Amino acid sequence: MTAPALDIRPVTIEEAGELFTLRRAAFVTEAQQYDDPHIPPLTQTFDELKADLGADGVITLGGWMGSRLVGSIRVLVEGAKATLGRFAVAPDLQGQGFGTELLSAIVPYLPDGIEEVWVFTGRDSLQNLAMYTKHGYEHQHDKTAGDLTYAYLRKLLGDGAA
């Protein structure tokens, strides 16, 4: 059975509450895997999230199934580089292709001139790493912050992708 296609569009400030709830639910399993309830997606306040939605250089896409926000991804644009983060899918819908849909939907929302897209995830998040690799992201390096080690992956766009 194939999952229905998502309605993917930028998240508005009016939808901040739904986004806040989705991220909290989605990142609990990540926090449990790393035995760290203080990961940034779980410690960001509602006011910080609303400010982020309105920040220059930040694009937050949401995926809706009907009226339900079931996935989201945040993109930070800096010069010719875009960095993905806060990638979340509702726990009851993970593994059904919604994350892949969101990941594939990013490029049309990027401003002209983006040459590379970066993403990071916990080094031990094997499912995440496999998904990114499947979609053309290549491991570049690891970086430790506190007790966590993150894997950084990059995908070249345009002429650099050849």
Describe the fold and architecture.
The protein has helices at residues 16-33, 40-43, 46-53, 98-105, 126-134; strands at 7-10, 58-65, 68-78, 81-89, 116-122, 138-145, 148-156. The chain is 29% helix and 35% strand. It is an alpha+beta fold.
Lay out the secondary structure.
Elements: E1 7-10, H1 16-33, H2 40-43, H3 46-53, E2 58-65, E3 68-78, E4 81-89, H4 98-105, E5 116-122, H5 126-134, E6 138-145, E7 148-156
Parallel strand pairs: 4-5
Antiparallel strand pairs: 1-2, 2-3, 3-4, 5-7, 6-7
Instruction: Enumerate the spans where pLDDT stays under 50 for 5 or more consecutive residues.
Output: none
CATH class of the domain at 7-114: Alpha Beta
For the residues shown, what is the average pLDDT?
A: 88
Number of helices: 5
| Global shape | globular
* Order of SSEs: EHHHEEEHEHEE
CATH superfamily of the domain at 7-114: Gcn5-related N-acetyltransferase (GNAT)
**What class do helices, strands and sheet pairing give?**
alpha+beta
Largest sheet geometry:
7 strands, mixed
Q: For the terminal residues, how far apart are their CA atoms?
A: 35 Å
Helix content: 25-40%
The CATH topology of the domain at 7-114 is: Aminopeptidase
Number of distinct beta strands: 7
